[in-house]
Amino acid sequence: MMTADFIRIHDVIDPDAATYGARGVRLARMAALGLPVPRGLLLARSFCDKIARDGAAAHFATELDDILAGLGDEVLLSLRAAPEKGEWGGPEALLNIGITNERLPALIERVGEAGAYTLYFRLIEGYGAAVEGLDPDDFETLVADQVKYHAVKSEGDLPLEAHKTLVEEALALYADEAGDPFPQSQREQLIHAMDALVRSWNGVSARILRQSYGAPEDAGLALIVQRMALGVGQGVCGAGLAHMVDERSGAPGLSGRFLPQAQGYDALMGLRTPHLITAAARESARQSGLSLEELLPDAPRALEAHYATISHGLGDAYGVEFTVENGALWVLDAVLSPRSARATVRIATDLVRIGAITREQALLRVEPRALIENLHRQIDPSAPRDVCGHGLPASPGAATGRVTFSPEEAIQLDAQGEAAILVRIETSPEDIRGMHSASGVLTVRGGMTSHAAVIARGLGLPCVVGAGDLRLDQKARAIVTQDGRSFSEGAIITVDGTRGEVLAGAPDMIAPELDGAFELLMSWADQVREIGVRANADTPQDARVARGFAVDGIGLCRTEHMFFHEDRINTMREMILADTVGDRRSALDRLLPMQRDDFVELFSIMRGLPVTIRLLDPPLHEFLPHGRDEMHDLAEAMDVPVTTIIERAKSLSEFNPMLGKRGVRLGITMPEIYDMQARAIFEAAAIVNTRNLEQVEPEIMIPLVSAAREVDVVKARVDEIAAQVMAEREVRLTYRLGIMVETPRAALRARDLAEGSHFFSFGTNDLTQMTYGLSRDDAGRFMRDYVNQGVFAEDPFHSLDVEGVGELLLIAARRGRQINPDLMLGLCGEHGGDPNSIHFCKLAGFDYVSCSPYRAPIARLAAAQATLLSREHTDLPQDDGA
Amino acid sequence: MMTADFIRIHDVIDPDAATYGARGVRLARMAALGLPVPRGLLLARSFCDKIARDGAAAHFATELDDILAGLGDEVLLSLRAAPEKGEWGGPEALLNIGITNERLPALIERVGEAGAYTLYFRLIEGYGAAVEGLDPDDFETLVADQVKYHAVKSEGDLPLEAHKTLVEEALALYADEAGDPFPQSQREQLIHAMDALVRSWNGVSARILRQSYGAPEDAGLALIVQRMALGVGQGVCGAGLAHMVDERSGAPGLSGRFLPQAQGYDALMGLRTPHLITAAARESARQSGLSLEELLPDAPRALEAHYATISHGLGDAYGVEFTVENGALWVLDAVLSPRSARATVRIATDLVRIGAITREQALLRVEPRALIENLHRQIDPSAPRDVCGHGLPASPGAATGRVTFSPEEAIQLDAQGEAAILVRIETSPEDIRGMHSASGVLTVRGGMTSHAAVIARGLGLPCVVGAGDLRLDQKARAIVTQDGRSFSEGAIITVDGTRGEVLAGAPDMIAPELDGAFELLMSWADQVREIGVRANADTPQDARVARGFAVDGIGLCRTEHMFFHEDRINTMREMILADTVGDRRSALDRLLPMQRDDFVELFSIMRGLPVTIRLLDPPLHEFLPHGRDEMHDLAEAMDVPVTTIIERAKSLSEFNPMLGKRGVRLGITMPEIYDMQARAIFEAAAIVNTRNLEQVEPEIMIPLVSAAREVDVVKARVDEIAAQVMAEREVRLTYRLGIMVETPRAALRARDLAEGSHFFSFGTNDLTQMTYGLSRDDAGRFMRDYVNQGVFAEDPFHSLDVEGVGELLLIAARRGRQINPDLMLGLCGEHGGDPNSIHFCKLAGFDYVSCSPYRAPIARLAAAQATLLSREHTDLPQDDGA
């Protein structure tokens, strides 16, 4: 009869890890799947607790003896620890339990003299260490002495007599040190071994160690006793590990290693060079040792069959740990196949294909951020890295190219077909053309929302910013590292925007891969997700990328970027520096057709989908030239003294530009600007809608609102211009007008603001800055310290601060919809590409998130996961109304 | 029998202005007080509505005739408009109604021929204009023709026959233009006059005009009919206005004017030079015309008696509008005594003294901001102003002095006993010494929280900042105005920090006056108020001023200002530029005794009262030198190359300093700084408490908190240092640790933060900046436009934004006290000196407000008013928990 305390591996139904340990569960499942798992029994955690209390002998019931007897005559046993989770660690296994002087002749018959003596010696050594606390070094000294005495290279070369001598010496050493002779009964060995493993598990250092791996204080242990598959013997014998998927790509492919005449550890400890699994692999590696396939031709097929069974039964890709005993293949364990971030996608879709998991499971199986690896060129993880500078990972992917210090050079190099890395202190609007031509960007200053970072993300260009440990030696035209290395113009460097590192030279790269698996997973995500994913796209080029990533529209078109083009920046500057409203209007009249053409192109690309256009937002001084030379050029173009330009620029400069005269404040104080933009939008919509069946519905967004009257004022003018354009062009246009909620006050006053608005789009970059009183660009300096010290649980610019900023979002959403139940809610900060933040938006009932085009796939997957997870739990931070 | 439609002036009980108009109410009250008010009747608003509908004739009932008959035989009548509020305006009065050809002889008998004809002429002219819409110019042409014909200087010199002729001509003109002869019945004249006044009231332009003065759309009119006190006649006759309090000081003192042989208008229109009231006044003015006192010796005493009666009965200081008819003095109206802001205090306390009003009424009678006039030297309101520049009123009061462009010169001038006005583009910490020596400060840039503004307010120094229409010509060392005037070094200018103006030259000034009335009012305020008033005081000097204004403690001591002293700024800079923690500690060790000494002095001054000390808040780059020269000096002092200083300063500079590495972020990343400050505080407290019976209880405040863990980290270290100091000095110290709530997130997370805090002090400057996403310094440029256009109802930096920022305060207060019911709540932004904001704090249950020392009296009065007003209504903005 069985008790809950122990059970035969092959008798278990629905095992759980808390009772039998993770490995116990795996073994039981594999046994149930019909895999050749050596017979044995699982000792439950409850049983181990009793052993801890009373010793194993007190609980070694007759049933236990019966089961062990049922494993066969003179079998050797293994005893393994099986904690609830594998990563908690645990004491080492004890193998070959049951060798005694009496049983030795039978063993010799089975595995040969050398093998039998070796196994006996290892048992005495291992048992002595585990049970009696003997020093393994003392045993190893015996071996070393023999090696020396016989003048051979290693233990493997010792003559048979030496092995015999070693066993004798080991038995003597044991008896001497332990005070008792080595136990000559399998039962006795097993009982003491059980006691030893349980004792070790409960030791102080083991406790501390496993708690550091996340184990709870009362983590318990289960044990596994199994018949040994020996791996040592007369026929084909050995131990190995086979994987059936490629670690980098996730594609099917058998690989692994096999060590003839070896047991578990030896194969894994790597004392000897392992052989390969397939003949083909051996050939390509030009190894002398025969592959498993050559030794045992059926083995690869058997392993693949086992892999399929395991993956199906356990619902993931597992490698197989196996032992071959006289040509028979035994499965010792299954270990999760290691995989690169990129491989997770392929593996997940393949598992669905073979019916091992559902589509929903596959969607949950892939970490959305891992898609970055699919989307961008990356440095090969196995390539050596000569890191020479550190900064912020401003835009993912890696690029190699020649150091250039000016946009002009970047353009030149690009024209010559050479990759350029544009290196600047900071970038400014004048650099945009150069950035288009560069393969990567590196700045010494700036934060995650600096000009370089924002533009690079938009372009999908690898970018590292704020690399403060690099110095730009302008005179020598070189980058100098902290340890004095210098990279002159033309030197080859690599920027790793995924990690925020600068590397010397050109490490191996792996190309982005948007293969079938990626597309398949994305299509499933789109079927599941309930929250829209739009892109932040400022230019037709961005829009094309966005459309390529199958977004649901544009959630944020920052019109200011349109003004940075070479052919219009000077007109923009004339507008800004205009002395009279008349002059300003005249400059705006020249900007109108340019902006209208941009919108025509943008709307044509996005037709059929919504496009949210943010009216001009940044403080005007951002458009003015920064360098002395450019100021001179502008002065010449405008025919004014350069001092006028300098003075005007100075008078426009601000103490805290983030909190300055920008957003709707421009719209109120210089209404001509928004008038022009509204007209450009409506005229473009009229043109595009006349041409196409699929209509565009522009959504006009007012930035940086803090009071309802601001919206009223702008809305009145926009509505009037819409009416004018409709009358002039004899068309009907539908459009929506909404606000960007990015000040805490806008969130609090959501009721007032919802009245005149079709939508709220939360600008969580600014909202986070204002809620924390923390500029993202300036926070870079200490954010890492803050997060490391646990002062902030996470960088609130990476993952939405649910407790603070999140409460403002919830307040605004609830108050807004109280007044206007149809209010559309979106999020268009950088958090729009962050999975946790997307999950929050889903729970908060948002209609969409918007992120940079290259983040859209991540957002689509995260949105799908949010839907799947919200079916399980819906715990939003509760606002108790207090 | 009387109806509600009209009532005798002397019969009214408890009149109300909505029914009888403000003047009707005053007349009825004065009649009831026994004053010699001419008899007459009040026509209610309801009656005037009927007149408007049907014409006066339809409602001229017999009772009305009876009342009019009761006023006496052949009396002349006046008809006056009486709107609900005097400031709404209304049609002109019609006087002398009832003169007809038939009655003329009797009138001649009463007032003489010239007088009678003049009155008749004026009646025809006035009536013609009001009733028939005739052009008064046509009548004036008749007069001018006679003046010319008789070759005299003015109408008054015309011979009798001319007056006769004028009446004949006027009657003919009237008949000609109106188409009917001038009506020869008092009743008919009165009825048409009533119609005319009501019609005029309901005219479009009158409506628009009064609505611009704040009248509601349906503002109605009442009318007053009174027996004329003629002012023209055989004995002492005339009209006048007497005031019994001095307009500037509010002290008792009879003044006014009297015009013999005149009626209401003439006296007020100022066509003739009026005589004075008292003989003494005539003497000092060397006027030829006899004073009223000389004409009618009892009149001054009578007027004073009437004044006392009126002030008592009407509860305020009123001047008396009077007419003397044959030596009899009639009171026509009472007009509120005009008064400077400063005089309101004296008048209010005097009214209490005579029992006219209660102390509570007196407290409510004085606009708290008016106290500024008492506290600071001001430009005489009657002095001519040669304004040459405009800026922000950064610190109230006015000062005249010589233009100086450097702190050194200011110090030098001051040493020579000359007043200096320090003129700078902006000030920086290096200017502080110069500011101490200057009489006033003027900056071309900067906002209300700029360095200059903050320091000047602390010093009580008149200051104008951001005077963008002035240009500093550094080469010529001169200020140049927009119209090209130039003020070189040494030129005399005046800064008016109350108005934000710069004046050429030295206008007359009036000195500050903290007289008995001021002190009395303050003492009443302190008895009434329930909310504490503390001062923001950074230095011992500030603390002395604050103690002088009887504050309840220091609510904000900004420790950074202590570091700007000449003798320690370099040590501070060494600390900032230190390369290692060791170097930093060594500089801090040298700062410790200096800071401790400051606290010893501060605590000694404030002993017995709480002192809230804010740990270091500003970003460190604020302490670094700005000018090239000073950088060189520092480099020399520190023995490092100047490039090191420049580079280090550059690396510390921030994009948005307001949102940068400041406040508790310094405390977390460089804990040595707060350690030093905590030690200085505790050691100073130990020293002071050992010396004195009255103990000081320091309150340590952590700035710019946004997460609870920040508080935990700082609190742990502060508590540890307190324990160390207590052990070292063998004393017991009590102290409180709290936070400055100035980020929206701190308000939202108040529950977490309240756990470890004794108090919350709301820093509403920063909180407003962050809630609006608006930097106060940068908002200056457009705030005026915004407020004028009504985009913001008020400048939220002047008066707390109750709807947005206020909600955050309420959320924080409620959540904080949920967790910690004893949590002390204060406000220490500039709003602490703003009456509306103080009212809000009272309603929100705050314990105190803290403001700059010179605002403390304003805050004390406002706090008293808040208590008095909150007894009446307690409408806080409701947070519906949504």
From TrEMBL, chains A, B:
Q: Which residues form the PEP-utilising enzyme mobile domain?
A: 419-500
Residues in domain PEP-utilising enzyme C-terminal?
Answer: 518-866
List the transmembrane segments.
none
- Which UniProt key words apply to this protein? Kinase, Magnesium, Metal-binding, Pyruvate, Transferase
Question: Which InterPro entries does its entry note?
Answer: ATP_grasp_subdomain_1, PEP-util_enz_mobile_dom, PEP_util_AS, PEP_util_C, Phosphohistidine_dom_sf, Pyruvate_phosphate_dikinase, Pyrv/PenolPyrv_kinase-like_dom, Pyrv_kinase-like_dom_sf
What reaction does this enzyme carry out catalytically? pyruvate + phosphate + ATP = phosphoenolpyruvate + AMP + diphosphate + H(+)
Q: Superkingdom of the source?
A: Bacteria
- UniProt-listed Enzyme Commission number(s): 2.7.9.1
Task: Cite the GO molecular-function annotations of the record.
Answer: ATP binding; kinase activity; metal ion binding; pyruvate, phosphate dikinase activity
Gene3D superfamilies recorded for this chain? Answer: 1.20.80.30, ATP-grasp fold, A domain, ATP-grasp fold, B domain, Phosphoenolpyruvate-binding domains, Phosphohistidine domain, Pyruvate Phosphate Dikinase, domain 2
Q: Name one Pfam family in it.
A: PEP-utilizers
Keyword Cell wall biogenesis/degradation in the entry? The reply is no
| NCBIfam families tied to this protein | pyru_phos_dikin
**To which protein family does this belong?**
Belongs to the PEP-utilizing enzyme family.
The job of this chain, per UniProt, is described as: Catalyzes the reversible phosphorylation of pyruvate and phosphate.
Provide the protein name.
Answer: Pyruvate, phosphate dikinase
What is the protein's species of origin? Answer: Pontivivens insulae
Q: What gene name is listed for this protein?
A: ppdK
